[in-house]
Design brief:
The complex is a heterodimer.
Chain A: E1 5-10, H1 14-25, E2 30-34, H2 51-58, E3 68-70, E4 72-77, E5 82-87, E6 99-101, H3 104-117, E7 121-124, E8 128-133, E9 138-142, E10 146-154, H4 161-165, E11 169-171, E12 178-184, H5 189-198, E13 203-208, E14 211-219, E15 222-229, H6 238-245, H7 247-253, E16 263-266, E17 270-272, E18 276-277, E19 280-282, E20 288-289, H8 296-318, H9 328-350, H10 353-359, H11 365-375, H12 385-392
Parallel strand pairs in A: 1-2, 1-10, 2-7, 4-13, 10-19
Antiparallel strand pairs in A: 3-6, 4-5, 8-9, 9-10, 11-17, 12-15, 12-16, 13-14, 14-15, 17-20, 18-19
Helix pairs in contact in A: 1-3, 1-8, 8-9
Chain B: H1 3-14, H2 40-54, H3 65-68, H4 72-82
Helix pairs in contact in B: 1-2, 1-4
Classes of the chains: A alpha+beta, B mainly alpha.
């Protein structure tokens, strides 16, 4: 089969752009097919420190774009006057010490432009209709043309096109069930300063009845506010009601402008049980999305894409890309990260553990350090006692296991 | 209420043991591994709940922990000795 490209990446979000960029940098031709025309609105504005290494490999520097520094995360429970600050710099030795808050329209566009700058062919506004992996190559038909490649990467986000067509996505019903959210602009300059400078760009997570809020400062007088709940029947009027009920959120948004009405999402938590096969692999949300609470989505998507790209590049060099078990070790490695966060998210919704840890009068600093390191997305180290204890807890441990193809399962780290 | 009963209720409540009734917990049976089958994160969570309710600090890595958490009876005895609430 003659191939138009070595690799086709479907979806130009952060995970797709990361994979495309790295495969192209290794010398292979890459086509990125993005359905939308960037910039476009997206939620999930909070990154984790584990992304810093990814940025370095992509050849980008978030500082030059003026993205807001995020020093850590704050947890609030206004019902009991609880407030605690987790600062990434106070994590375990060697753990990266800051992250960024990013307006996704700008961030995703920037990463996609970078992929194009390193030589990827990027088609925006082109919709994939069909993708068929065959023995000798992958055929992709779009609303404009037909392409063939040696390898296909599904980075279609929540659409998870391959997984949903094959019916291999499974809803995760123990986590947040629905969210309503909006951006607020033209914040009072004093408030903006308080959020970005005094509070060092921290994300705020507020515990409320029936759920929790995120409040993510974006700099330039903007903030993203969302409500996630396990209660049924949510509609977009809830956001105003909940904001009015929170002294902090009403103070922050006083006099601010909301350019569009609140968005609404549900059933966003799922695990794709078949994430790879012969000549294809999934990355980012197309493989799994847990819950927004610890901002793991974009970061696991980018870290996972890095690992996937490295595996695929080696295989392309050696002509092994048709091996259905090619991504077994990759999937196991990435699943480890998802499982640590899944277990933490499960504890968040179904136990008092995190609430007690966050709002203890005199917290155990070793535990706090370990939890900070997990919150930084620094999950592939074997010296974090908190993570070890958490994952040893049979009652709490969540184990999402992607289907593997080889007879012998690889080790997760 | 008897302290042992309060401790049993605290265990069920703090650890959200939906399928366990406080009165069915044997005061002398081991809480960890066998018995209720609790683990070290449960110990941590229970320690925080004991602190909140009785004002008794039990450090996560305290060597005495094994003894204190070995049964409802020992935990209640420790609380009775050290409680400030």
């Amino acid at each position: 089969m003659q191939h138009t490209h070595d690799v086709i990446v479907i979806g130009g979000g952060p995970s797709g752009s990361t994979a495309a960029n790295l495969v192209r940098q290794a010398g292979f031709s890459v086509l990125v097919l993005e359905r939308e025309v960037f910039p476009r609105f997206h939620i999930g504005e909070s990154l984790l420190p584990c992304d810093l290494e990814v940025f370095r490999r992509l050849g980008v520097d978030p500082e030059t774009e003026g993205f807001l520094h995020k020093a850590g995360a704050e947890f609030l429970d206004e019902r009991i006057g609880g407030h605690t600050v987790y600062t990434f710099a106070e994590g375990m030795p060697g753990s990266p010490d800051h992250a960024y808050q990013v307006e996704r329209s700008k961030f995703d566009h920037w990463l996609l432009n970078r992929a194009e700058a390193v030589g990827c062919e990027v088609h925006q506004g082109e919709r994939m209709l069909e993708a068929t992996p065959e023995a000798l190559g992958v055929r992709v038909r779009t609303d404009r043309a037909e392409y063939t490649a040696r390898y296909l990467i599904d980075a279609t986000g929540q659409d998870a096109v391959l997984g949903r067509r094959a019916k291999t996505t499974r809803q995760l019903v123990d986590f947040g069930l629905a969210a309503t959210f909006a951006h607020y602009e033209q914040l009072d300059p004093e408030i903006d300063r308080e959020l970005c400078v005094t509070a060092r760009g921290n994300i705020k997570v507020l515990f409320v009845d029936e759920g929790w809020h995120w409040a993510i400062p974006l700099g330039g007088g903007k903030i993203s506010i969302g409500l996630v709940t396990r209660k049924k029947g949510i509609d977009s009027t809830w956001l105003d009601q909940y904001i009015a009920a929170s002294p902090f959120l009403s103070r922050v948004t006083r006099g601010a402008v909301r350019p569009r009405k609140p968005g609404l999402l549900s059933s966003f938590s799922f695990h794709n049980e078949k994430q790879h096969g012969s000549r294809w692999g999934c990355t980012g949300d197309a493989a799994c999305f847990l819950d927004p609470v610890f901002s793991s989505g974009v970061s696991l998507g980018m870290v996972g894409a890095t690992h996937l790209a490295d595996t695929v590049v080696l295989a392309l060099r050696e002509g092994r890309e048709a091996d259905p078990a090619l991504l077994d070790a990759h999937a196991t490695h990435v699943a480890h990260g998802y499982n640590v966060f899944a277990t933490l998210v499960h504890s968040f919704y179904h136990s008092t553990l995190l609430h007690s840890l966050f709002f203890a009068e005199d917290p155990d600093m070793d535990l706090k350090r370990g939890l900070t390191t997990v919150l930084a997305g620094d999950l592939w180290r074997d010296d974090n006692p908190f993570q070890a204890k958490l994952m040893a807890s049979k009652r709490r441990r969540v184990e999402l296991v992607p289907q593997l193809h080889a007879a012998v399962a690889p080790s997760p780290i | 209420m008897e302290l042992e009963q309060q401790v049993k209720e605290l265990i069920v409540e703090a650890l959200m043991l939906d399928d366990v009734r406080p009165e069915n917990i044997d005061a002398e049976a081991p809480l960890f591994v066998t018995g209720l089958g609790l683990d070290s994160i449960d110990a941590l969570e229970l320690a925080m709940a004991v602190d909140k309710k009785f004002g008794v600090r039990i450090r996560a890595d305290d060597d005495q922990n094994k003894h204190i958490f070995s049964s409802v009876r020992n935990l209640a005895a420790y609380v009775a000795q050290h409680r400030s609430k």
